[in-house]
Amino acid sequence: MIRSLTIENYRGFRKFELHDLGRVNLIVGTNNAGKTSVLEAIHILESPGEISPIWATQMRRGEDFQVSEANRTFRQVDTRRLFHGHEIAVGNNLSIQQSSDNLRVKFSAKIVESTTIGKETQGSLFEDEEFSTIASSMLLEWKNSSIENPISSLCKLTRQGGLSSNQIQVNTGLRHSSSPIHYVSAGSLSADTVIRFFEDVVLTPYEEFVIEALRIIEPSIERIAPSGTERRDNAGAKGGLLVKCKGKNRIPIGSMGDGIWRMLGLALSLAKSEGGILLIDEIDTGLHYSVMEDMWKLVTTTAKKHNIQVFATTHSRDCVDSLAAVCRDTVSDNSEVTIQRIEREKNRSVAYTEQEIIAAATHGTEVR
After folding, report:
1. Are residues 83 and 138 in the same domain?
2. Using one digit for the tens of pLDDT, what is the confidence trace for 237-284?
3. 178, part of any domain
């Protein structure tokens, strides 16, 4: 379990540390303080051998563009946005490091100069010779190292300083860690991911767990099942499953509102994260304040039972107060739950233990 996290030269952070982390960690702070960046940093760090989390991170933020060259059209992401100061030059570097009870893991990325652009130096960097003609003289060198698994690779950057989808394909499938890690964005899971996750849990004990989670919002739900319609992975799509409520006909799950869809995504992601890490951006999105305490009970209980470390963000006072209410019932000496406040221009988070979370809520102290 991650106990501390140090980020250097990544996005808005020159150097920043989160400390005294617990089983469930709620990250708070003002807009543009870096809450989402912390989740992204953990996703990158805890996916050793994979560069796809970088691509996913930048696509979510809209840091991508389309290029047509050599009679080909392809997408690339603007790697300069990853580095503090948003400049791309040889020597730029960033690092993300975590310390756990018995292990230290570090991810680092650096812009290095390619001394030879010839075909013989490219190795596995490109799938075909034609695509390599767009290469510039810079490489993104990235490393993920621990006592057990040192991993290193190079990705060629394009003339625009971008990382192409081709490079993601070449560097996919190298992941060495067996522990799952899942990222739930503020927009929740896509329809395609929801269906895929549901197919994995159907006819297992987790199927009833998911239904119980949905009953937090709609107690009359009896069953859910795939609709058999074509999957859709377009942004905002909520489909592919049918819901059977007591005394009613089956209805598409998308007809039941954003709260049901959000709770479904949280429950499925918890089910898929056993023994790993779950990252949730704006955990309260789509949820009414009246169900947040039950939502936190679901998250904290499942995290403890199935050895999941959770990192979530919020802007909501209701979300913080609901977590405090749960802490009152489950308070522990080793503080399984923490709030981590990020403040601009400060290089260390303000960490609140369970007892401090309860005290802040009792006295109306603002911790966000």
Report:
1. yes
2. 677 899 999 988 889 998 898 999 999 999 999 999 999 999 999 999
3. no
pTM listed for this prediction: 0.88
Domain that includes residue 367, residue range: 1-46+273-368
Residue 215 sits in the same domain as residue 326: no
Nearest-angstrom CA–CA distance, 273 and 268: 9
Q: Say if 175 falls within a structural domain.
A: no
C-beta separation of 76 from 158 below 8 A: yes
User: pLDDT tens digit string along 307-343?
Assistant: 999 999 999 999 999 999 999 877 666 669 999 999 9
What angle do the packed helices 317-330 and 289-305 form, to 10 degrees? 50
Number of structural domains, the chain?
3
**Is the domain of 138 the same as that of 57?**
yes
107 Cβ partners below 8 Å, 6+ apart? 44, 45, 48, 95, 96, 97, 142, 143, 144
